[in-house]
From TrEMBL:
Protein name as it appears in the record: Putative myosin class ii heavy chain
TH1 domain residues: 842-1026
GO biological process assignments: actin filament organization; actin filament-based movement; determination of left/right symmetry; endocytosis; imaginal disc-derived male genitalia morphogenesis; mesoderm development
Localization (cell): Cell membrane
Annotated keywords: Actin-binding, ATP-binding, Lipid-binding, Motor protein, Myosin, Nucleotide-binding
Binding sites annotated in the UniProt record for ATP: G104, E105, S106, G107, S108, G109, K110, T111
Annotated region (Actin-binding), positions in chain: 565-587
Membrane topology: Peripheral membrane protein
Length: 1026
């Protein structure tokens, strides 16, 4: 029910729920919907329909197996694992033998389905000791049987060319402990002939392409399949088949199954001998067969373990026992070729049977007890080809028997369920194919009896006489149509060598050619006798001497097959069956391609519509009360959210609330039966609507519950964290205080005993004192070089403090010095020079310290007219560096004159300011200056002493310079001669200056309240007031 609400997109899981269940188109459309969604499995009741996807799907892993393990069939979507689990669980819990019947045409996925069944059983059962060994053998039997029994056909790259029934024995715990395999109708004609686009059995190519070189040499084989007639005409190169790799797996599997090295070698020898037999050429000389390519005859004899002569004779002559006499007659070419091919087919067919028996021997349980058994039947489905022969007749006969069994068991299980549930059984009309089976197998009258009679009677018999006999004896049977009996339309489709059987799956036209030969399955006595004497133990065992000694004519092929089929039916009837019907979606092995016509034929051949009709004859849906109530109880207020009474009464309340009509359902003893699928669909649709409502309700309650729980958890967590945090903080505070008290006590003791003999305490105190001083010092270090403050150190740190202070001040000084710009550095250098020249020598020096020295002291107007003057002097190689306004005193009368003093690299210039330019009045080279005379007072007096020979300048120059310290410092820095400066004190009383004619005059130095200044005295002399 879980996917019913998505039925419009992916169809329904169980075709029984289809409304128009009798319409094949509706059934196919449901399969198509599921196939397009990569859903390859669909149910018809308990029958699984599987559509081959022709690609790997991620639906077979261990996770998927875990989903289906220990669940009911209806709990999960349709799957091969669900069918296997249902059969396995019934076997383990109810100890009732099971069988899984897998059928379908070639390429529909039967072999893969059987592998998945084995894989599931191997996974869900134990993995210990002998159980694991048995599981390995069961799984490893597949690669060997596929190599020897499978071949590439136009429909399937790995087509099973035989029917297989495998019994797996389980102990009481449900673990596999043994097994048994039955094989049916191996297509041995493929050994000597293959149709276009097909191959021989895989093993031939695997031996050639996957065997080691030394082994291949011993077998006298080459790598090239083209060298061997039996496989050279086939399509031996296939993209999807890796023969070399598969040969490795086959060898590994044979080892796992317990085949000895000798047995494996003999098997390889038999395979090689078949290839060599095919290369023995036959020509005819004078009506007798003559063999050529005798090297291959020699190799075949060697590998089989007989003499070349014996093998040669058995292939070219025939010995007949007549009335106690032995008569040998030569064979013609056609008969010799028949004998050669018959031998090759017989050897291969009996080797295959020997392998199956050998595996059975290996799979036998150690102890013979009444174990439960699960059978897996992988057998060909109904076949209708363009040309249908003896093999198709046998296969379709088999499918008629299986269909009969299927219908009988299905009806029987339906009747048993109705009886068990106390519901009246309604007879079901269905096609009873017993009439067809009787047509085929009835004693003395059936087709099999007529065929055997024609094979065994003396005289001239042929396929034509067999056809005539059937036409005579079966003409009145409505399911047999001969050419003579056929209507005009049918005659156009039939040939004169053909007859038609009306099977349950449709009309099949059989060609009678080869029926007698294939049924006789004749192998000349000479060949059987030679094979019975070979040294190859396998060949010798499969051609026993007892067969030669027996006077009884061996059963025909169809009789053997009929007996095997009867035995199989008896086995299946004794078990509880499960069915897997495999369908091939297209003829080109293309993923995603869904061919309606092809699938429609298979639906008919498999009897799926008949199966669906039988299943739907009564009720489309049935479910245990508890399961139905559990799913749909939310639709009725009286059953939701829980029902206290029995499940049956709960369902009664539920269907009453849903307003089911009386004819739409029945209440059984343990199950509810619903007649029409639309009733279930409407219930499911209502449930989907109700589910959304319930989901919202559940979400709201759940969200509230989650938030409430979250709040409670957070509150509890917060309280717990607070409690433990407080405890932790109190413990930490106690430890801190305790430690602090101890430290203080030790500190005080260390302080008290600091001057006494060294102890741990006073050493620690002293160390702490040093440490604390360094910490205090680090926090109070002076930030500026001018700040000379320094924390007072304790006594023990005096020396360290002095060194640190010196290092730190040096560091500050270096830091300050590195941070200076070139201009600032020059300024400071001048200031340092000024300090050197005037500190403590001139009273107005302290006032000059904070004032920076200027580049020049010219006015704006003077700056405008200085360029011509500077340019002229620069042309003569001199550069003016500084200029300022000064007052010059004449030598005679000391009259004051305004002048501009310029200082260059080489000269003093005294210039007079004009309107547009400066006029040079004095130009005094530095090297001619003897002294620069100044006073120690605050005045701005400057006397420049020059030699008397400089007549042009008329003697020493007397100036009043406003920025005297700045000017003197710049002059000394340029001429780099501090000794040029002479500072006169008031105590000297006077300063003498010279004139050009050698005369000297005195300038008085005095202190006064009117100073500082320079003035002319009453007696005509110059007075400098400090």
């Amino acid at each position: 029910e879980k996917s019913l609400h998505e039925r419009d997109r992916v169809g329904v899981q169980d075709s029984v729920l289809l409304d128009d269940y009798t319409n094949e188109k509706t059934f196919l459309e449901n399969l198509r919907k599921r196939f397009k969604e990569n859903i390859i499995y669909t149910y018809i009741g308990h029958v699984l329909v599987s559509v081959n996807p022709y690609r790997q799907l991620p639906i077979y892993g261990k996770d998927t197996i875990a989903v289906y393990q220990k669940t009911h069939l209806i709990e999960n979507p349709p799957h091969v694992f669900a069918i296997t689990e249902a059969a396995y669980r019934t076997l383990v819990e109810e100890h009732y033998d099971q069988c899984i019947l897998i059928s379908g045409e070639s390429g529909s996925g039967k072999t893969e389905a059987s592998k998945k069944v084995l894989e599931y059983i191997a996974t869900v059962s134990d993995n210990k000791g002998q159980v694991q060994t048995v599981k390995d053998k069961l799984l490893q039997s597949n690669p060997v049987l596929e190599a020897f029994g499978n071949a590439k056909t136009t429909r399937n790259d790995n087509s099973s060319r035989f029917g297989k029934y495998m019994d797996i024995e389980f102990n009481a715990l449900g673990n596999p402990i043994g097994g048994n395999i039955l094989n049916y109708l191996l297509e041995k004609s493929r050994v000597v002939h293959q149709n276009n686009g097909e191959r021989n059995f895989h093993i031939f190519y695997q031996v050639l392409l996957g065997t080691e070189n030394d082994v291949l040499s011993k077998l006298h084989l080459t790598r090239n399949p083209e060298d061997y007639n039996y496989i050279s005409h086939a399509e031996h190169c296939t993209e999807n088949i890796d023969d070399a790799k598969q040969m490795t797996e086959v060898c590994k599997a044979m080892k796992t199954l317990g085949l000895s090295i000798k047995e494996q070698g003999e098997i390889m020898a038999i395979i090689a001998s078949v290839l060599h037999l095919g290369n023995i050429g036959v020509v005819e000389e004078k009506g007798r067969a003559v063999l050529n390519n005798t090297s291959h005859l020699k190799y075949a004899a060697e590998l089989l373990g007989c003499t070349e002569k014996e093998l040669h004779l058995s292939l070219t002559q025939r010995t007949i026992l007549a009335r106690g006499e032995t008569v040998s007659s030569p064979l013609d070419r056609e008969t010799a070729i028949y004998a050669r091919d018959a031998l090759a087919k017989a050897i291969y067919d009996r080797l295959f049977s020997w392998l199956v028996n050998r595996f059975n021997k290996s799979l036998q349980p150690e102890q013979k007890t009444n174990n439960n058994v699960m059978g897996i039947l992988d057998i060909y489905g109904f076949e209708i080809f363009q040309k249908n022969s003896f093999e198709q007749f046998c296969i379709n006969y088999c499918n008629e028997k299986l269909q009969q069994l299927f219908i009988e068991l299905t009806l029987k299980s339906e009747q048993e369920e109705y009886l068990k549930e106390g519901i009246e059984w309604e007879p079901v009309e269905y096609f009873n194919n017993n009439i067809i089976i009787n047509l085929i197998e009835e004693k003395h009258k059936g087709i099999i009896a007529l065929l055997d009679e024609e094979c065994l009677r003396p005289g001239d018999t042929s396929d034509t006489t067999f056809l005539e006999k059937m036409s005579d004896n079966l003409a009145a049977h409505r399911h047999f149509i001969s050419y003579q009996k056929a209507e005009t339309k049918m005659k156009k489709m039939m040939g004169r060598e053909e007859f038609t059987l009306v099977h349950y799956a449709g009309d099949v036209i059989y060609n009678v050619h080869g029926f007698l030969d294939k049924n006789n399955d004749l192998l000349f006595r000479d060949l059987r006798e030679v094979m019975s004497k070979t040294t190859n133990s396998i060949t010798r065992s499969v051609f026993p001497k007892s067969e030669l000694e027996s006077k009884k004519r061996p059963d025909t092929a169809i009789t053997q097959f009929k007996n095997s089929l009867t035995q199989l039916m008896n086995i299946l009837v004794s078990k509880s069956p499960s069915y897997i019907r495999c369908i091939k979606p297209n003829d080109f092995k293309q993923p995603g391609s869904f061919n309606d016509t092809l699938i429609s034929h298979q639906v008919k051949y498999l009897g799926l519509m008949e199966n669906l009709r039988v299943r739907r004859a009564g009720f489309a849906y049935r479910r245990n009360y508890a399961e139905f109530l559990k799913r749909y109880k939310s639709l009725c207020p009286r059953t939701w959210p829980s029902y206290n009474g029995s499940a049956k009464y709960g369902v009664a309340e539920l269907v009453k609330h849903l307003d089911y009509k009386p004819e739409e359902f029945r209440m059984g003893n343990t199950k509810l039966f619903i007649r029409h699928a639309k009733t279930l669909f409407s219930t499911e649709d209502a449930f989907q609507v109700r589910k959304n409502e319930l989901a919202c309700l559940i979400q709201s309650h759940w969200k509230g519950y989650v938030q409430r729980k979250k709040y409670q958890q957070m509150r509890h967590a917060a309280i717990t964290i607070q409690k433990w945090t407080r405890r932790y903080m109190a413990q930490k505070e106690y430890q801190r205080r305790k430690q602090a008290v101890q430290i203080i006590r030790n500190f005080i003791k260390g302080f008290i005993t600091r001057t006494g003999p060294p102890t741990d305490l006073n050493r620690k105190f002293i160390q702490t004192a040093k440490q604390q001083y360094l910490l205090r010092l680090a926090k109070s270090l002076p930030k500026s070089l001018l700040d000379k403050s320094w924390p007072t150190p304790p006594l023990v740190c005096n020396e360290a403090s002095r060194i640190l202070q010196e290092l730190y001040r040096n560091g500050l000084a270096r830091k300050y010095r590195l941070a200076l710009t070139p201009e600032r550095k020059k300024q400071l250098e001048l200031k340092v020079l000024a300090e050197k020249l005037f500190k403590g020598k001139k009273k107005n020096y302290p006032q000059s310290i904070p004032l920076p020295f200027a580049e020049d002291r010219l006015t704006d107007a003077q700056n405008l007219i200085k360029k011509p003057f500077f340019t002229t002097e620069a042309a003569s190689g001199d550069v003016i560096l500084y200029g300022c306004n000064v007052i010059k005193f004449d030598r005679h009368g000391y009259k004051r004159r305004n002048r501009v003093l310029f200082i260059s690299r080489k000269h003093f210039y005294l210039a007079m300011e004009g309107d547009k330019q400066f006029k040079i009045k004095h130009k005094i080279p530095f090297e001619t200056v003897n002294k620069l005379e100044v006073t120690s007072e605050r005045d701005n007096f400057l006397l420049i002493r020059i030699p008397p020979q400089l007549t042009k300048d008329k003697g020493d120059v007397i100036l009043e310079v406003p920025h005297l310290i700045e000017v003197i410092t710049k002059i000394v820095s340029i001429i780099n001669n501090p000794n040029l400066l002479n500072i006169n004190t008031v105590n000297d009383g006077k300063i003498c200056h010279s004139l050009i004619n050698g005369k000297e005059f005195a300038i008085d130095l005095t202190l006064g309240t009117n100073g500082p200044g320079i003035s002319k005295g009453k007696s005509g002399q110059l007075i400098v007031v400090g």
